[in-house]
């Protein structure tokens, strides 16, 4: 395959750090390369070198003649005075750009909800980020370099971007360089993974799952002193092999080798023991949201939410940006009061919240990390062992020298980990995490997940990172049309339901009057009752499907007739779910 760009014996040094010693890497036609590594080890610097935005201290960067390279960094480079339309297509007439399938796809996938004539300066940070990404994807580039492109994208946007990048170029053409902490996205897009560490770039075949396997093998063969990190990655590999089947279906993922490596790795969580501990700490009553509705400025955000949260439950919440996920967390913490319905809390409930802003750290900004943890108790029980706050910070990736730094001098990822530690050491029994993956690299995500595996309480996670959701939670819910839906089929079911809802709205005739104008009050109440009944029926079906899966797993597989009978019963239950979901969407349109 033809060479596109590369670096030869590149050395890069900053006043306080040697970033690269003598790195040689190359990108060829058809390469789709994901770049991973700890925060601060040089991932963004490597992108800057290869795209020409940084100059090396020695060595050289090469590009094929006439190569068109486009990149999106984490820095906002948009002109605040320009409109959205001008930023995306310039002064091209509408008939010209609207006739281009790629432009239509990018606009529909990333910015369909943003007004074409809006000034860039009036947009939120997340909207500006999407505009910046869309402008790059509209352009015709041979090589695309993306630095954390999934930031500010919801799950639908991330899924669309993966599909777009996989279909953008013909086979064995074009090149992609990608820095991201989103491990699902890496697995979907990357065919090669580069790990940046200790001044070098180490290549691995395949995406994140294959990289985990090869890294475990490398560490075992080298017998290095990183036993803690090795065991953590073996645990991660165990989840990859035991988790969703699609994760291990890629041909480069050597299943026999993986099975041998994880043969002695116990299950990630002792669910029975954790449930006992959670019940002992919380009792049977935790938090119940009973027919709760919330509006802001007359706009309904959450409608008729019915959710009984039990001790030890580990639930993930998904939904589009602005769907009401943070509002739901606010109801649980008591920061938001419902317009109707009520929130009932158990007497022993203590809620801990890791929010997106890090408000808890603001009063500590001028203090040294060592002073902050010095005020805490000397010993805490974590994972069945006594640990000090400093040991817990070390487990979350803090080096000893960083304890002398002031809180406001820490990187975004370090502040996030300090905030998580303080939240956990406050000893809540209900833990809420709002986008916990922000500013955290893949190694620290794995360390955080390992810590959460042994946390004995009720856990609720709001995130667009589907890998994290599938990894640390046992069930998922979605906010769709202001209502909370249980997702027996996980994130894939949410994407299907969201696509159905979008398709039905798009297909609705423009001249049709709104359903709310066509029905009487009695009809409206009847529709709301039917919605509630469907939700209850779907919850029962989810339990029945889970039980049927367990029955199938324990059944004598040599009894083909019995297996076929159980499989037919399972399909009938899943068919009932599909019918009820269709009816739910039909009624929800009437209630809009």
Written account of the structure:
- Residues 524-583 form a coiled coil.
- Residues 5-223, 287-506 form the ABC transporter domain.
- Helix content is 43%, strand content 21%.
- The chain is of the alpha/beta class and 592 residues long.
- The protein has five domains: 1-68 and 141-206, P-loop containing nucleotide triphosphate hydrolases (Rossmann fold); 80-135, no CATH class; 208-266, no CATH class; 271-480, P-loop containing nucleotide triphosphate hydrolases (Rossmann fold, 3-Layer(aba) Sandwich); 508-591.
- It has a six-stranded mixed beta sheet, with helices on both faces.
- Helix 9 packs across helix 10 (255-261).
Protein topology:
Elements: E1 3-14, E2 17-28, E3 32-36, H1 43-50, E4 58-63, E5 69-72, H2 84-89, H3 94-97, H4 101-111, H5 125-138, E6 143-147, H6 155-168, E7 175-179, H7 183-189, E8 192-197, E9 200-205, H8 208-222, H9 227-242, H10 255-261, H11 271-282, E10 287-296, E11 299-309, E12 314-318, H12 325-333, E13 340-345, E14 351-354, H13 369-374, E15 380-382, E16 385-387, H14 389-395, H15 412-425, E17 430-434, H16 442-453, E18 458-462, H17 466-472, E19 475-480, E20 483-487, H18 490-507, H19 521-554, H20 560-591
Helix pairs in contact: 4-5, 4-6, 8-9, 9-10, 19-20
